[in-house]
């Protein structure tokens, strides 16, 4: 299925210093003008970018092409301001004052975009029926976006592996954040070409399990030509749009107040909106007992549903776009979720 897309840049300067990039997706003939039709708002995880969602979006539209009662007007995917195309536009601004990039910054960008506080967006989202769908850091951004005023016109939320946790011993240890920070700082980030980058990534264990379409999107949209501000002397090859420093900046604060605020607000959000949680059936990044704690104590049992995406761990957008799309579609169609079985650990 062929997606149509249009790129947008939201400029709220001088009130907000960072440019915000997004893409709108639709399939001609399937975009509904019904006033009750949904507008899906997608946010991504740390180190990735808005185009990582494209295979999932394609599978969602395959469901839409069937005899479903669900109507979707369009789908929007928004970059975190230090990721993807936004990172390129903001590279000079990001060089000072963003050694730590709190996840609330992503929330602020999404809020500005959806509430019409910047130039360059010809859509009044206050008149749309918004469904927020966030993965990892992106889920935290959507939770926090709902704490700002004016409130965006969300009808419900779907959070895929949300990275908001209680303090230890029920949450993730600080050493896990250190592991992520160190990994980002040491990540290979220069390649002779996109072709060489794709071959190298395919040879790495962590990337071998990715859906090939997502991996290609990472190379096509997550990389840029050299030279850059960080590498002014490199005159050929490609590097990451989200620099090593900026990815690490998203992990560096062990007590990331964005994650903390999102966890503390989760039960309140669940009491006001339908909130659906998707976890991977493989407990890799988030242990099963932490998932259980979030669904019992974090949401106080007020979430609407919880599902597992089979054959997937934390990176379900990257590894299981079809399974993720099926889980999202089940939520949109109101299919009852299986009973969540608590871990015996």
Distance between the termini: 43 Å
Radius of gyration: 19 Å
Q: How many domains is the backbone divided into?
A: 1
Helix content: 25-40%
Mean pLDDT: 94
Task: Return the CATH topology.
Answer: Rossmann fold
Topology of this protein?
Elements: E1 4-10, E2 20-26, E3 38-43, H1 54-64, E4 72-78, H2 84-89, H3 91-94, H4 104-114, E5 129-135, H5 137-145, E6 154-160, H6 174-186, E7 190-191, H7 194-202, H8 205-208, H9 212-221, E8 223-225, E9 238-240, H10 244-251, H11 257-272, E10 275-280, H12 288-298, E11 305-309, H13 316-319, H14 321-333
Parallel strand pairs: 3-4, 3-5, 5-6, 6-10, 10-11
Antiparallel strand pairs: 1-2, 2-4, 7-9, 8-9
Helix pairs in contact: 1-14, 4-5, 5-11, 6-10, 7-9
Structural overview:
The structure is a single chain. The protein is α/β, with parallel strands linked by helices and 345 residues long. It has one domain (4-173, 259-333): Alpha/Beta hydrolase fold, catalytic domain (Rossmann fold). It is 37% helix and 17% strand. The strands form 2 sheets. Strands 1-2-4-3-5-6-10-11 form an 8-stranded mixed beta sheet, sandwiched between helices. It is globular.
What is this structure, in a nutshell?
The protein is α/β, with parallel strands linked by helices and about 350 residues long. It contains 14 helices and eleven strands.
